[in-house]
Amino acid sequence: MTRLWRAKWGLLRLALAAFLLWVVAADTGARLARLQLAAMPDFDYAAEVAYLRAAGRYGEAVMVADAGLASADAEAQPAIERERAATVDEQGSYLRRAKDLGLGALSGQGTSLESLIGAVAADFFIVGDIRDLVIQGGRWVVDGETDELILVLSGVGVATTVAPEVDWVPALLKAARKAGAMTRGLGEWVLRAAKSANKDALLAFCRDVKTLAEKASPGGAARLLRHAETPEDVAKLARFVERNPAGAFALHVSGRHGTDLVKGTARAADDAATLAADRVLIAAAKKGERGLAWHRAGGWRPLARPHLVVGVAKALWKGNAEELAARLAAALDPRGWWLVPLLGAWVVFELTLLAWRARAQAAFRSGLGPATA
């Protein structure tokens, strides 16, 4: 014990050097993945906004523009701002024209985008639900065929007038149904829930759809419903866009790949592994198709594991330990190529120094020479 106490500072330095070497070396796989992702060109937000505006998908265009303004570099932001301003101007003018088109509002359908917008706009009020109930009921009288889900959603729309916070959601669901954007499994669940008068489940489902519509735009929400077979799928997508400011953008870019990943999450929403997987998916989406190809190939897996020092940091500090560890790791990434050999040399040096000291002390005790340590 006396000899260990005399070498305490050397042992302490050795332990520190070995710990730092382990932290940096063990993170090599994740570091290489981060560097690989960082080397890819960023997503072209301005071009995507222009494309969506040309397609009449104004809500999604604004959502993508906002995501770009929040994360793109300073050089790209002026172009994104111009595209966003053009989108907002065109959207306002377009909606004013659409309000004058009563055909869609009266019939509940149409062959043009303008008439479909009129149909959905009418559904924001109870008159649209009554219209669809009359139309579908008339079809049943004439030919014995009707869309049962449209009838149910119209009834839900009438019923939810007592719950104003989700009153417009059935209108969105009917628009998705008419556009073929609602999966068979989800439609069957809505029918069963409505027939069994499961009001609580329906309201919870409508709130999740509302969350998707608020974060991803109504059109974006309808497209996300294409990838949901159950209300649990919708709930997981809603929680994803709630906890991640850029979540709606990531799902927009990643499509089925991203939604399948989110739906397959079995852990709690605040689990460290879940949050890490969220961050990697969003980072890959911000790199566009190249980032998604890298993600689909499995390059994200080393980054989806919580950082090695998170456990230690959580034991010492409460709160943002994981974020601190992630920032430190990112700061060390460009220096990893020389940090590992430097820390390795430090470990070797401390081991050599301790060995030399031990030999010197042994020689002194045996009378072979003075201790020079």
Largest sheet: none
The DSSP helix count reads 22
Report the uncertain regions.
106-117, 124-131, 133-145
Structural class comes to mainly alpha
Average pLDDT across residues?
75
Overall spatial form: elongated
SSE run: HHHHHHHHHHHHHHHHHHHHHH
Radius of gyration: 30 Å
Q: Percent helix among the residues?
A: over 70%
Task: Write down how many β-strands occur, each being a DSSP E stretch of 2 or more residues.
Answer: 0
Strand content: under 5%
Terminal CA distance reads 18 Å
Task: Give a concise summary.
This protein has 373 residues and is mainly α. The protein is built from 22 helices and no strands.
Characterize the structure shown.
The protein is mainly alpha-helical and 373 residues long. 76% of the residues lie in helices and 0% in strands. It has 22 helices and no strands. It has helices spanning 2-6, 8-26, 28-38, 45-54, 58-71, 77-99, 102-107, 113-123, 126-143, 148-159, 169-178, 184-195, 199-216, 218-225, 231-243, 247-263, 272-285, 288-296, 301-304, 310-316, 321-332, 336-365. Helix 11 packs across helix 14, helix 13 (199-216) crosses helix 14 (218-225) and helix 16 (247-263) packs across helix 17 (272-285).
